[in-house]
Specification:
globular, five-stranded mixed barrel, 2 domains, mainly beta
């Protein structure tokens, strides 16, 4: 029997690349913006599939989202660690290797959909989006400090765990 790669299946020596069309109605943020993080709706808090929006198609209300495991993108990340009574309460530096969450809190700045808080402002679980990684060989210092800030950092997204 001759072995062959099926023509309807993509393969890559770089690993699996996952770009899928997702209806806006299935997203946490129903007005997605290209280059920003996205999370799909889920019946269980903290279990959402997350990725990075590549393209938005307003005419069809669809977004192409990159769900590739270990893909690295630069994202704005809020350095909030905890919330109290619905408001940001504590903050900390974001170090290489720190977990980054898709934060559904209404208090998040418009362009920042990610934070270092495992819980949102209502106390519900935020889904793990990925981890901070160095953007280059010299990017090893902590980003931010113990005061509120939004940092532009490299984040390696994960899909499932």
């Amino acid at each position: 029997m001759t072995e062959a790669i099926r023509n309807d299946y993509e393969v890559s020596s770089e690993g699996a690349v996952r770009h899928w069309d997702i209806p806006y109605a299935r997203l946490e943020d129903t007005t997605p913006t290209a280059s920003l993080p996205a999370a799909l709706l889920s019946v269980t808090d903290g279990t959402q599939l997350t990725g990075t929006v590549l393209v938005v198609d307003a005419a069809d209300s669809m977004a192409v989202i990159d769900f590739t495991h270990s893909m690295v993108y630069e994202h704005d990340v809020r350095n909030v660690l905890t919330y109290a009574e619905g408001a940001e309460a504590t903050f900390g530096a974001i170090n290489v290797g720190d977990p980054i969450y898709y934060d559904r809190s209404a208090t998040m700045p418009a362009a920042a959909k990610l934070s270092t808080s495992p819980l949102d402002s209502t106390g519900a679980a935020n889904p793990l989006f990925g981890f901070r990684v160095p953007a280059n060989d010299n990017d090893t210092a902590a980003a931010g400090a113990a005061t509120a800030s939004t940092q532009s950092i490299a984040v390696m997204q994960i899909v499932g765990d």
